[in-house]
Design goal:
Two copies of one chain form a homodimer. By secondary structure, chain A is mainly β. The first copy, chain A, has helices at 77-84, 124-129, 139-148; strands at residues 32-34, 39-44, 48-54, 61-67, 70-74, 94-96, 102-109, 161-163, 186-192, 196-202, 220-226.
Chain lengths: 227, 227
């Protein structure tokens, strides 16, 4: 019986080379671009606020977070559903880990608040399934590479907080992939409740309309602030 | 930075001592009891069918599955949601792994088909949160112990397929913990699509009504058959 090393990407892109710094600490107050189809990790101290901006309005951010002192503690949507009594987190909600401990709290959301918490991030297998033959950028690899770029290894690929991703769940349980309802310049801010590694992927999904209909996946921006 | 060993239980119960055999291979056709509040692992070859029976009708089974040759490949609800286009799997549906590969297919379900795929399994942290001071049996530890009992280690605690667990998701996304709607003797059968380790936990949750109102968590039964 072998254990596959889940930290190794299935391919690569520039996410390996765009780290904010060697240990993931970003300049305070600097507006940092996450290039289209790429991922970046940033280290947040307790109390720091991460603001993620959606320049086009239709770009999804696959969001992950890990406890900085133990990467096996991670933001967990399945645990969040229990804590919130909802699949839709809103301003004021704590985003909990698989230890049921708050990693972040949402402090601001200028969008209509339509985000997804039930769908896995896209990965190599997903694009194979959709008929893509070669390598396709994907959020699982972006997470892996963003961590490698700051000297860390993903111990697992958690289910993400899919910011601005619009996946309605109907009364009969059926789901569908719809374009985002967020608007150009929308921003979500989250305060770190302990030292964490946050990872953001500008979702490269261009084979379903989750990043908008008839548009290419775009970039995202983020800012780390002390307040 | 340390990586916590997630395979170590936070406490223990008889799940450590009730393995079907040292390698998890069960006698074909034997009706095996999962004692109340405990977990058992069973190894299935490709094509074998696992039938789980709910004697009381109100007992939830937290269900996990792993590829036998690589435990980092596991049944994943977040990936299943994408594959199914639904949060409710039904007869004929393949249950996929985090590699988007079918591990099992549901071949029979005598219950009304109300199962949960969005809620994490109960764990030590959940019972602390609910006000329990001492150790409380929990599905995460039952999974860990059921694997230890057949010589394996859980590399992570995946979000489970919560068979018979009734957690309606309302139009506004709100969730609630309701008693099961399954009936005494209800049975679900799943065919293994490759060699897997299946783990079943008779959920010990007695602080919410997920295992029925005003009743103690009960036992479950299962049978492995060749067909």
């Amino acid at each position: 019986m072998t254990l596959h090393d889940v930290s190794i990407p299935d391919g690569s892109n520039q996410s390996l080379n765009i780290a904010v710094s060697s240990n993931g600490v970003a300049d305070i107050g600097r507006r940092i671009t996450i290039p289209a189809r790429c991922g970046i990790a940033t280290r947040l101290s307790e109390g720091q606020v991460l603001s993620i901006v959606n320049p086009s309005g239709h770009q999804v951010c696959d969001f992950f977070a890990f406890a900085a002192d133990n990467l096996t503690e991670h933001l967990s949507m399945a645990h969040l559903h229990t804590t919130l009594g909802s699949i839709f987190p809103v301003v004021g909600d704590a985003l909990v880990s698989n230890q049921r401990s708050p990693l972040l709290t949402i402090t601001e959301d200028t969008s209509p608040g339509v985000h997804d918490t039930v769908i896995a991030c896209c990965d190599h297998a997903r694009y194979r399934e959709l008929g893509c033959d070669g390598y396709h950028d994907n959020c699982a690899d972006n997470l892996r590479m963003a961590l490698i770029a700051i000297g860390l290894k993903a111990p697992l690929i958690p289910a993400p907080f899919n910011i601005w991703m619009n996946v309605p769940v109907a009364a009969d349980g059926s789901t569908s992939f719809q374009p985002p309802v967020s608007r150009a310049g929308d921003r979500i801010s989250m305060r770190a409740e302990k030292e964490i590694i946050a990872v953001m992927s500008a979702c490269p999904q261009d084979m379903t309309p989750v990043n908008g209909e008839g548009v290419a996946p775009g970039h995202l921006e983020f800012i780390v602030s002390n307040r």
